[in-house]
Design a protein that fits this description.
434 Repressor (Amino-terminal Domain); 2 domains; elongated
Amino acid sequence: MEDIKNIVAQNIVKHRKKLGLTQAELAEKINFSDKSVSKWERGEGLPDLETMLQLANLFDTTVDSLTKENQAENELKRRKRISDISRKYVTILSTGLVWLIATLIFVVLEVFSLSSSAWLCFVYALPGSSIVLIVFSSVWGKYWHMAFVVSILIWTLTLAIFLTFNFSDSWLLFIICVPLQILVILWYIFRSHRRGEKIKNENSLSK
C-alpha cells in the first residue's frame, strides 16, 4: 500500500509541475483543499476513485498510468546510478595514473642515480592527485569534495616545496596556508548558501 501511495504521489507531482500548477491551483481545479493535495504528494494518503478520474482527465492521462511507475524515469535513475559508478572508476583510475607516473619517475631516477631525493616524486604525487580530483569535482559539481581537496592541495604543495628547497625559515611557508585555508572555507560556505537559496526558491515555485 505504501508503494502505491508513493507512486501516485510522484505521478501527481510530475503532472502538476508539467502543467505549471501550484498545489493550491491544482486543488482549486478539482475542488479540494491544498492540504489534501499536499498530503497526496507526500504519500500520506490516496485520492478516491472519483478524484483519481478527475486528476487523470486534468492531466490528460489514465488512472492506470497514475498508479504505475514511469518506466522511462526508472531507466533514467538506473543510468544515473551507472554514471555515478563510472565517475568513481574514472576518478580512481586518473588518480592512480598520477601515482604510476610518480613511481616510474622514481624508478628511473634511482636506477640511473640521477637524484638523491627521488622519493620526493611521491610527495609531489599528493598535490598532483589533488589537482586531478579538483578537476573532476568541478566538472561534476561536487563542491564539498572540491573544497576538501583544495585544502589538501594547499598543504601538500607547501609540504613538497618545503621538503624540496628547505631554505632558512622555510617553515614560514605553512603560515601562508592559514589564510588560504580560511578563504577556501569561506568560499565553500558562500557556495552552500547560494545553493540553499536556489533550492529554497525552486521549492517555493513548485508549491
